[in-house]
Amino acid sequence: IETTDGAMRLVGTTLNAAGVDLVLKGIGVSQTSASKVFASTAQVTAGAGSIDLSSALNDFTGQVTLTASGAAASIGDINGLSLNSLTGKLAVTTSITAIAGTQLVLTPENLTTTSGNIYLQSKDGNLTTPGTLTTTTGNVTLIGNFVTGSNGTVQVNQTITTGSGAVTVSADTEVILSKSVLSTSGNMTISGATVTHSTGSLLDILYLRTGSAGSINVTASGTGGLVMGQYFYYQAGTGATNVTSGGTVDLSHVTSSGVFNVSAVGQVQQVGLGSSIAVNALSVKTRSNGSISLANMSNNVAYVKLLSRNAADTAAGSGAISYYDTN
Questions:
Q1: Beta-carbon neighbour count of residue 172 at 10 Å?
Q2: Does the pLDDT value for residue 150 go beyond 90?
Q3: For 34, which DSSP code?
Q4: Which sign does the torsion angle of CA 224, 229, 230, 233 carry?
Q5: What value does the mean pLDDT take over residues 317-321?
Q6: In angstroms, rounded to a whole number, what is the distance separating the alpha carbons of residues 173 and 150?
Q7: For residues 97 and 83, what is the distance between their CA atoms, to the nearest angstrom?
Q8: Kindly report the CA angle at 275 between 184 and 197, in degrees rounded to 5?
Q9: Which residue, 39, 102, 144, 240, is most buried by CB atoms nearer than 10 A?
């Protein structure tokens, strides 16, 4: 189906090409949220226009190919969604949004944009970075949701890099940080019931790193706690670094010219004798009478506030507090 001199728009209709290959071509291809597209494989070409086939009612049973140089390319599927290679098919200024009702499957490749955003979501599945993800001002968003089975995990197994773009990695079950997330000044938000850090090594130090006023926000909402890997570093400029856990917290290396806030339930301690906290201001509050042990010799903090509280956070707790500073 092709229009040669204008946009193609599907309005409140069902385009049923189930079981066969579908080709849609126009100067922009879009649909309303009430419309449906059923097909096996699909090739969607929008020329200088955008693609908006984001209806959650679509069902593509084969691989989908998107080609456009407009502002955005969006695709949705009620079930699993498999995307063909995006490299060379989309302009670096084109934002990509891909949302699968279950599992989103991406072709292994590095994705690079300038101002284009990258938004990838498995609504009832797991999600893995297809390769390195790189933007300049574009944002990067990775989401894995849980409805059934063992779904709801997002794994960062290749480096994510942005300039001023924000990075959001959110999983209902678990975020696995196997590689670094790096930004020049963008905000970072990492959240899951569990957040798992790779240990890293002396030859492969891993980072959540941003600069300027960019913030780092890490939340492990479950009771399993948060453990930073021995060679995993949080580095920020003047922006805040915030760690929130529904359980205990084991800290590794944290460096910032701003404030470092920790909220936990239970013990807060450092991982290994070589780890250090070097920030302008440190604020730690732990509930359930948790203890605080931040006594490594290389800590260097200008302002320190450490609180052990009772379970209800209504009174002082009984947890022991120890802290050492090199200055």
A1: 20
A2: no
A3: T
A4: negative
A5: 98
A6: 8
A7: 11
A8: 60
A9: 144
DSSP code of residue 316: B
Alpha-carbon gap, residue 270 to 278, rounded angstroms: 13
**Where residue 169 falls among pLDDT bands split at 50, 70, 90?**
very high
Residue type, 209: R
pLDDT category at 149 given cuts 50, 70, 90 is confident
| Two tokens, residue 35 | 């419309």
- Phi, psi at 41, each rounded to 5°: -75, 155
Q: Which amino acid is at 18?
A: A
d(CA 255, CA 142): 25
> Could you tell me if 177 and 198 are in contact, meaning their C-beta atoms sit under 8 angstroms apart?
yes
Q: Does position 78 have pLDDT exceeding 90, yes or no?
A: yes
Phi-psi region of 28 (alpha: psi -120 to 50; beta: other; left: phi over 0): left
**Residue 226 CB contacts under 8 Å (≥ 6 apart), including other chains:** 195, 218, 220, 243, 245, 247, 248, 249, 250, 264
Q: State pTM to two decimals.
A: 0.97
In 3D space, the residue among 174, 177, 121 whose CA is nearest the CA of residue 150 turns out to be 174
Residue 252's pLDDT is what? 97
Displacement of CA 69 from its chain's centroid (Å): 25
